[in-house]
Description:
Blueprint: H1 2-13, H2 18-36, H3 40-51, H4 54-76
Helix pairs in contact: 1-2
Amino acid sequence: MVDIHLVEGIASSLPIPYDSSQKVYPYLEQRVFEKHGVQDSVYLQSLQYYLRDANVMEELYSRTIDSLTVKQNIGEQ
């Protein structure tokens, strides 16, 4: 989830029109899946599982945000 959110941020911050960034994002997303050896269908099934339980999803996002914050703080040093 951390890497997915990072590539979402990268795609949305590119100095290109929004519709172009929407074409870049799937490429970046696929690279994340390849990096972690996960098929997109497995990721989507996992996401659907977590979406069924709001408490579990909240915990997942809390951990994701914590990890993103750590990465950001490391980058600022």
